[in-house]
Amino acid sequence: MSQTHLRERSEWGARAPRSREHVPWDARTEFVVHHSAEPAMRTVRSIQDFHMDDRGWSDIGYNLLVDDAGNAYEGRGWQVLGAHAIGHNTSGVGVCYIGQDSPTPAAKAAIRALYDEANQRAGRRLEAKGHRDVNETSCPGDHLHTWVHNGMPVDGLD
């Protein structure tokens, strides 16, 4: 699968992070799928504002984000320590579907393309997991969790 166009931080108006910690690819073993559990019209910037202003984090928590149109966004970035899954922020690349538990085929295709790109960048296959596989939560919802565990198929998405 080809790489998806990743909208860089400057394209979505990201604030500067308070700090950044680099994570080498050899430390990455997982690709952790989340959902924002909010309306799909939520913007990446509003998620960043919530994470920085309300939670006091150094930046948006996720490494990458995807919306229903299939747009992919750079959150913290591929090799930056995330704040998305306790105990798995170094080992896991965190990707967040912006929405509840009803991703469109375009959103699923973008998540899968990011997973394929993560594997290519790592030089090996990362283990695909839902957030609930690593922390006590209902995230990423039943639909997304099942899809991840079925291998994130791109054909017959719904």
From TrEMBL:
Keyword Manganese among UniProt keywords: no
TM region positions: none
Molecular-function GO terms, alphabetical: N-acetylmuramoyl-L-alanine amidase activity
Enzyme class: hydrolase
Domain Peptidoglycan recognition protein family positions: 4-135
Catalytic activity, EC: 3.5.1.28
Start and end residues of each stretch annotated as Disordered: 1-20
Alphabetized CDD domains for the sequence: PGRP
Domain of life: Bacteria
Domain N-acetylmuramoyl-L-alanine amidase: 18-141
InterPro entries assigned: Amidase/PGRP_sf, Amidase_domain, PGRP, PGRP_domain_met/bac
Keywords: Hydrolase
SMART domains: Ami_2, PGRP
Entry similarity comment: Belongs to the N-acetylmuramoyl-L-alanine amidase 2 family.
The name this protein goes by in its record: N-acetylmuramoyl-L-alanine amidase
